[in-house]
């Protein structure tokens, strides 16, 4: 089984890059299952119902998110009816699911969304939340984790702590793709950050002049998504059909 996990899709340029490449990518790479992080989909923050439908119409199995998921009030109106749109499980008592199990190609694939505690919006302990999840003793063959966090160290530490328990661990949030994809010692496929799918010459998706103005002056500036050439970033994780263990992880940047 081959699983495609795509990093934070940022606004219209990110959506356009996704739309342009997804069908050919699925065909050429023989992809069986697709996960995208959609928390920046709609004008850079959160995801509208229209854009949720956009992903479902373009072969996405599960949509993960992060700290911006509820920045669009519309999400509150529909997230409880869309179990395949996840919010971080440890994001206090907010509506929506933190995980979902999807049956695909005779495999039960569990996708779990978590948010880090370091330099992020306040949330429940990510380790306690993970233990609560594991104590549910759910029935699945493959466990994929989108860990939405700020610091490299927190992502690596968490992945190593659950090495061999998680099938595929991907970091999101920093919007910069890391070059450390590998299989950890006990078998977990790992990358610190998938990277953003959005405009290359931007400040993590934002119009550069907006970010520069705020940094220079300290004044509040309404950020606008950047325009320009966009990349699609993510990884392909290959799973052994017999053991359900990860056997490779390939970084992609299109």
Automatic annotation (TrEMBL):
Active site, renumbered: 68 (proton donor)
Keywords of the record: Metal-binding
Binding annotation for Fe cation 2: 39, 67, 148, 173
Molecular-function GO term, any one: 2',3'-cyclic-nucleotide 3'-phosphodiesterase activity
Binding site for Fe cation 1: 8, 39-40, 175
The organism's place on the tree of life at top rank: Bacteria
Pfam families: YmdB
Metal-binding listed as a keyword: yes
CDD domains (alphabetical): MPP_DR1281
Protein name, per record: TIGR00282 family metallophosphoesterase
Metal-binding listed as a keyword: yes
PANTHER family for this protein: 2',3'-CYCLIC-NUCLEOTIDE 2'-PHOSPHODIESTERASE (PTHR36303)
